[in-house]
Automatic annotation (TrEMBL):
Residues 49-253 form the Metallo-beta-lactamase domain. This is MBL fold metallo-hydrolase. One of its GO terms (molecular function) is N-acylphosphatidylethanolamine-specific phospholipase D activity. Pfam families: Lactamase_B_2. Coiled coil: none annotated. InterPro entries: Metallo-B-lactamas, NAPE-PLD, RibonucZ/Hydroxyglut_hydro. One of its GO terms (cellular component) is cytoplasm.
Amino acid sequence: MTENPQKEEKKADTWVPEVVNCSEFLAGQEDGLVWLGHATFVLRTENTTLLFDPLLFDSAFLKRRHPLPCRPEELTNIDLLLLSHGHRDHLDEASIKLVAKQNPEVQVLTSLRMAPLLRGMASSLRVQEAGWWQQYSIDWESMGLEDPASPPLEIYYLPAAHWHRRGLTDLNKVLWGSFLIRTQDKLIYFGGDSAYAGHFEDIERQFGPIDICMLGIGAYKPAFMMQLSHTNPHEAAKAANVLRAGHMVPMHHGTFDLSDEPASEPIRILQDVAHGNMLRGELHVPKVGEVLPWTQWE
C-alpha cells in the first residue's frame, strides 16, 4: 500500500455537503428528486415513488460524515426499490430490512442472482431480477393503476463496469449494473457504481440523449486501485457528455470516507469542469435532502 500523497490535505479538508430536511417531501405526493447522500436517491413521478440503493445507517466500516436528511422511519410509501449491485455501501442489510418492514408491498428491481441474498435479509420481499438491457415487468395493478396497459414509466437494467463481492466465496457471483427510467417525457439514468467504459456509448446509441443522469464522482484515488471501479469527476463529466445528458446530478461523494482524495475535491473539480464549458448539460449540486424539481427542467 502506498502512502497517500494528499494525506495532510485530506486531513485538513473538513468539508461536508449541506443538509436540509426532506420529511415534508417524503410525506407528500409532489414529483421530485432528492439525494439522501452517497448513492441513495428518492425519485417521485406520476404518483410512483422509487428508492435507489438505500444506505440509511452507520455500520462498523461505514460512518456517515453528515446526518441523513430525514428519519429512516419516514421512508414509507415506497413503490419500487432499485438496487444496482451488492456492495455494502449500496446494499445495506439494516436498510433493506427497514424498507421491507415499512413497505410490505414494495417491488424490488435488481440484478441477476441477487434474490437469494435479498431474501436472506427480508424473506417477504417481491424481487425481480434482470440482466443487462432487460426491461422489468412491473405489477402496476397492485399499485392501483387504473390502466395497466399504459404504465407511467418503464425501467431497464443496463451495464456498468464494476464487480461484486460481499464474502470470501462470492466474487462476481451476482451481477452489477445501472438503471434507466423512462417517464412520460424524460429519460433518467442512474449509473450505480461504474468505471468509465464503452457502455455509456452503447446506452446512448440504444436510447438516445439522456435527460437527467446521476453519476458517481467520488472514491477514485489511488487510481491504480479505483479506476476500474469508479469514475473520477473528469470521467463522470465525459460519461455525461457521451450520454448527451441535459442535466447531471453528482453522487457517491461527501457522505463516507472511502478513498484517498480530500472530501471537497470531487465536487470542486466537477464544478471547474462545468464552469469551463466542458460539460454539455447543466450541473446540479443539490444539498442533501434538497428537492430537485426535475419535471420542470428543459
